[in-house]
Amino acid sequence: MSLEITLTIFEILFFTAMIVLAIYLIFALKKITDSVKNIESKISEVADNLNPLISDTSEVIKDLAVISENIKQDYNKARPVVAKAINTVEDISHTLGKVKDGTTQVTKYLFPVLSGVSTALKFLRK
The whole model's pTM is what? Predict the structure, then answer.
């Protein structure tokens, strides 16, 4: 009989511990549920704040695409003009080189002639 009483006491203690554990698990699950709801609320809030940002970013990307296309068009228009200007400058440089060479040749022949004329005038003055 004493064994039955001891066994009954252990059963009461075991089931009491199980009830305490169940109550603890209920409170723990309640806290976890509240945390999950809080996280869900924060995520929803962040998502609501991200929608305008995503929309604004999409508009900026569209504007950048338009600007990029305009730059490409302007570049394509300006490229032939710049190439023509470079060719013109090269032609002018080539022409100036020829003028310089011609001036050098004239100067090369002109100075002796002027020197001769100057000498002749000095001789005639005497």
Answer: 0.44
